[in-house]
Structure formats: structure tokens, C-alpha cells
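Dear U.,

For the methods section draft, I wanted the exact inputs and outputs in one place so we can describe them consistently. I've listed the two proteins in the order they'll appear in the manuscript figures. Please don't edit the C-alpha cell lines directly; just add comments below if something needs changing.

First protein:
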Amino acid sequence: MSRALTLAIALVALGAGAMLALWSSKPPEVSALWLPEPRPLAPFELTDDMGRPFSNDSLQGQWTLLFMGFTSCPDVCPGTMARLASGYDELSQAVPLQVVLLSVDPQRDTAERLHQYVTYFNPQFRGITGPHDQLYALSRSMGLVYAMVESDGADGYSVDHSADIALINPRGELEALFRPQGGPGELRLVSMGHIREDLPKIAAYGG
């Protein structure tokens, strides 16, 4: 075989290898809003449902599904927590995983109340809260929002909040958002089926 032919074959093989590598590195298709690049979270210092500090370091080393809500929420929060509970055992066997409720109602959600609430759905779930300056900073860095609104309830207020579930990677960065589903007049909740399908794919690709 001539040297020129050998070189040509080598170049073709090199090109095929490069195309294969490019194809294999293509992100899988998912239903989640998967960020092109993971987003660092703002520094924060909160407290969990056992009265222990919870900070950026508490997100290291495992995947985290974080939902923002409050224990007095009448519909979206219990519906979402129930869905997370239904899929937790399966997902936690696939990837190291923690589920966290970020309460944006620190006035009512004491550590004891948070603990009773999250462990009702699953003993492994964690609840966290803290001062509003810390909550606002963290929620903004995840692209989530909440607001205190007047209501006719006993406390005179309720909380409007995003219904997304944030996926945080083992480096403590925002990796993706699972968006709520549903049409006008329907209770909009995140699909647990989407999380079951997407989380292992995202973890395998970017973990």
C-alpha cells in the first residue's frame, strides 16, 4: 500500500472518529428546561427543618430537586410534594438524590412545622427557610419568584410563588428547571413522568 493511500485512509478514519465523538457528545433530548451551561447559585445561609445550617455546601455531592413553596399552601405545594414522594425511591436508586422544600414563608414555617410537613411526604425529604434577603437571593439565582399577597385568611396574607422544580447538580449549580404542566383552569404541576425520564439522562450526561 502506498504511503499516500495509507495517509488518506488515516485521515478518513480520523474524520469519522471526530464525527462519532461529536455525535456522542450531543445532549439527549429532555422535556426539562436544560440550561446550556450550569448556573452558579448565589451564596446563601438558611436553616433546615432540624435547626441545622443549610448553605451552598449542603448541595454538594448529590443531585437536588428543590421546590419553592410553603406549608400553608392549599394546592400546588402538597400536590407537588406528593408527586415527588411517588418517584423518590426509584430516582434515588438511579442517582444520589435529595429533595428539598424551600419555604418562602419564614414567619409561619418554623423548623418544627417544616419537619412535620416534609416528613409526612417522605422521611428523607428536607425543608429549609430563612430571612427574606437570603430567600430572595437564592430564588432569583434559580430564576424563580415569590411574593407575599394579602388574603382573607387568619394571618392576613398568602404567598404567590413559582411552581417549577429546580434541578441542582452535585457541584451546587442550577442544571435544569422542570416546568409545571396544565392548561387554563387546571392545577399546574410538574410532571413526575418527565422527571423520571429526564433526571437519569441529565445526570449521565452532565453529572
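Second protein (the one for the lower panel):
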Amino acid sequence: MKQMWEEFKTFAVKGNALDLAIGVIIGAAFSPIVSTLVENVMMPIIGYITAGVDFSSLAVTPVESVEIKYGLFLNAIVQFLITAVALFFLIKGINMMRKPATAADAAPPPPPPSEVYLKEIRDALVKQTS
């Protein structure tokens, strides 16, 4: 039992498990923001562009007492797309901050020993001729 507890602690403290937990928490906190953006900002604009159509009230009644509310589905699709784009830019920004130093920032590697020896031989030959 103790060994299993140690394995669980190792798993839970690993970066991937913590990153996942943080992602879920941020996603849950981010959801109301996106819902408000879609319902109160984006959908009225889209409704205005489409001559006042309110997507949330769009429905089809093919049979009596059966109503298919495809407008709510369209709202969910728009909400998903906005969430996906927002998360894409959020993750892109985080990845830009996490990037390791680029090759331009790093010092150039030292020349190989053979090149150093060849330069010494060249310099010695130049000294002999002058």
C-alpha cells in the first residue's frame, strides 16, 4: 500500500498532471467569460448582420410537440470556435514566454581542435616568412 501511495504522489506531482489540473481549472473559469462574450457581444452582431435573426430562438417543428432547436446548436458552435481561438492565442503567448534561448542569443560553439591547430600552423608559417 505504501509503495502504491508513493507512486501516486510521484504521478500527481509530475508536471503533466499539474498542468492538466491547472488547465481544467482555467478552462472552467474561462467558460463564463466566453459564454458572455458569445451571448452578449458576438451573437447580437451576427444577428444584426443577418437582419435581426436571433439564433437562440431558431427551431424546426417537424412533428407536433417535437421541436428541434438548431439555433442553440449554432450558438454552441460559435462559442466553441471563439473558445478555441482564444485558447490558441493564450497557449501561443505562453509558449513564446517559455521558449529556450535562440541560437542567436547563445554564444557560438568553440572551433574544433583541428581548426585551432591549423590556425597555429598558419600563424607559425607567417612568422617564418616575415
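Candidate sentences for the figure legend, describing the second protein: The first strand starts at residue 60 and ends at 63. Strands lie at 60-63, 66-68.

Thanks,
Y.
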